[in-house]
Amino acid sequence: QKLNAECSFRKIAKDLGKSPTTISQEVKKNRTVQCSGTNNKDT
Description:
Elements: H1 9-16, H2 20-30
Helix pairs in contact: 1-2
């Protein structure tokens, strides 16, 4: 939820008592991409 609210890794790390680097690495490792529903192949 905090990522969707555009909180910084630094703020999330502080709230969780972790390093911002740890948060960044975990997000990159577990990130999923959501499609917006638009199709740019035919432009």
